[in-house]
Amino acid sequence: TTRHRPAAGTHAGAMDFAELERKEGVRLSWNAWPSSRIEATRVVLPFGAICTPVRAMDGMPVLPYSPVVCTECSGVLNPYCHVDFHQKRWQCCLCNTGNSLPRNYHEINENNLPAELFPGYTTVEYQMENKNPRPPCFLIVLDTAMSAEELQDAKDSLGQLVALLPEECLVGLITFGATVTVHELCDGNAFPKSYVLRGTDDVTQDQLKKLLNLELSPSEYASYDKQRGSAVAEASNALRRFILPVSECEFSLQTTLDELRPDPFPREPGMRPFRATGVAVAAAQGLIAECHSAQGARVMVFTSGPCTMGPGSIVGRDMSETMRTHQDFNKGSAKHYKAASKFYNQLGIRLATHAHTLDVFACSLDQVGLAEMKTAVDQTGGVMVLAEQFGAEAFRSSLRRMFSRDASGALDMYFNATFSVFCTPHVMVCGGIGPMSALAVKSKSISENEVGMGQTTSWRICSLNSNTSVAVYYEIVNQHSNPIPSGTPFYLQFCVRYKRSNGEIRLRVMTVARRWAETSSSHDVVSGFDQEAAALLVARVSTFRIEHEETFDLLRWLDRTLIRVGTKFGEYAKDAPETFRMPGPFAIYPQFMFNLRRSQFLQTANNTPDETAFYRLMMGRETVLNSLIMIQPTLMSYTFNGPPMPVLLDVASIQPDCILLLDTFFMIVVHAGSTIAAWRKANYQDQPEHEAFRNLLAQPVADAATAMGGRCPTPRLVECDQGGSQARFLLAKLNPSATHNTSDAALPSYDRAMGGGGGYDGAGGGAEIIFTDDISMNVFLQHLAKLAVQG
């Protein structure tokens, strides 16, 4: 009469982490946890999970009813719970509380189980009731302070965007330059009105209601019947004037766009144009908060330059005042930065309160203020797209990808999500890092040690897609004096309640089971280490701390952490660096840290503040696989000798007779060796007898197009030759094993130090060198070995 729990996952030594992620939607840094607080601190690296809440999962059941919830911890009934069919009760596997089964479950037995109790269905989705389904809203905020040609490209892109939207979706239009204009889109009026707001002053939701005549006068309010409504109230409703379904306003929207002209305010020589971006975003926030609160909505800002007036301005109009740089931040001389950041942060809070999203599409050769807007975009789950112009194919393909449909025909875009985590009593939640904002939810599982956004177990994600990933950090609090038998299972649960673009509300429940281990050195702990997930968890903490802690010495912290990991888990004889090696599960982790130290997330040289903000934003939300490509790019070699092969991310991989394909996630570089480039310039590929050469040239470009097709924003494609100016994009990412200061003889192998797991073998036979003073991976790992063996 009692149903027992299924096994808590496979043995750690046999774990395929990618396969577990496909099944559960979750990836843990450690897949066996030490059973006490003291032992947990000895593993050095964080205990955490990377959860992809709405990942597309094959075979996941969608259940047409509401879940059964624990009365104590609010966890959801799952296959790991004990069920007593005779007593009609179930025991929560998270808090061990006994609960009564609801009446409609009284007929279940071992041969008649609901789907959420099937052993294989540890991840299920519930279809929740939605009494008031409303389609999402897309409020377009368009900059007109640009040339006529640029504005025409922007209008063409917006026409493409509107064509991608389902007909039931709501849409609105605000334009801005020196002033902010809110456009009526109703077809009923022969002459739709436009309301012009001053670009120098912030505008709140209450002020906007008065300015746009969205509230009743005292006499109208006195005669207003709340049950029946009134014609006056209906006529003044923003949903009948400014924000309408695409099917009703497509013609008037297109007409309004066609009639738009560049901002008429005069622009003196040597001055930047008037651009009131901050007031435009504030007006958009107030408008959708008034008419679409707690429903899915996006404020989509299309801008071509920096805000130069009013709140949120990042630079003065006089061009003698330069745009702020990272050096200005370090010196504290970016005079607009703090005020602009504070303004956009407050806007972000206002947007997140109503579950609305801020997106910024920046098409400009100059900076537009993404560094100041980053927190607002991030906490509302918005996207940033950087391009040089609105007519660029990369920009338009990013829009198409953003509004792509899933298998059911709905947008691959989900709204107003609440992400909650539950855990066993021996574990506490330190916090989360991702495109979200913390909710004021109190729980017994909240740790005092805050990591990222802490002091809660629930977060709001205003907008997400199938690739959005959230990092959750845990702390083990069980005392050493209260031992847990080795092999005892523990459970973590992740719940996300979200709204689809067709109005459906879904609740996805992901429950994972792992085992306790006796000590931090046990075989299960070591063999269950997922170095890829751990690298991402450390990278997210690094970028979060460098943005939120002014005195944080990041590189020193990373180095000390890596040395402690080497001391704890490395295999070596004391004070003998030549014997040092990392065991298999840790073999590539030092390599990830070497590349993270050199990456654009931590090194700000050669990047503007806007670019750095964009890179860090993407790191904080992408999947494990995509994030690892950002940290440590992939390099493929194409030759006549066989199929494409992955090669070392090293300058030695550059050979005259091969084509290299570098994928950094943000950029894809196709690099032709000097011999290949010479043959191409001689047009050998056009001769019938050289079909193999023609195919060799085409294959990396085709593979690059395939990789670009699945990403948003679309990466930039660079095609270059060895020795050419654009080859710098490849050289900047390669390990400088051969530089102007080294010779081949001076480069020792460190394959042994990497434990045989993907190590390099020195400079090899490549003739290319890199002119840099950066240390190579050889030197980095030699220093790691030297310091780790000192213990």
Protein traits:
alpha+beta, 8-stranded mixed β-sheet
Structural account:
The protein is an alpha+beta fold and 791 residues long. It is 29% helix and 21% strand. The strands form six sheets. Strands 3, 5, 9, 18, 20, 21, 23 and 24 form an eight-stranded mixed sheet that branches. Strands 10, 11, 12, 13, 14, 15, 16 and 17 form an eight-stranded mixed sheet that branches. It has a five-stranded mixed sheet with strand order 28-27-29-30-31. Strand 6 and strand 7 form a beta hairpin. Helix 4 crosses helix 8 (277-291), helix 8 packs parallel to helix 10 (337-353) and helix 11 runs parallel beside helix 17 (609-619).
Quote the beta fraction.
Answer: 15-25%
Low-confidence stretches: 10-14, 226-234, 744-766
Which percent bin holds the helix content?
25-40%
Sheet with the most strands, sense and barrel status: 8 strands, mixed
Average pLDDT value?
90
User: What's the total number of strands?
Assistant: 31
Oligomer: single chain
| Form type | globular
Distance between the termini: 55 Å
Gyration radius from CA atoms, angstroms: 28 Å
Instruction: State the secondary-structure class.
Output: alpha+beta
> How many alpha or pi helices?
22
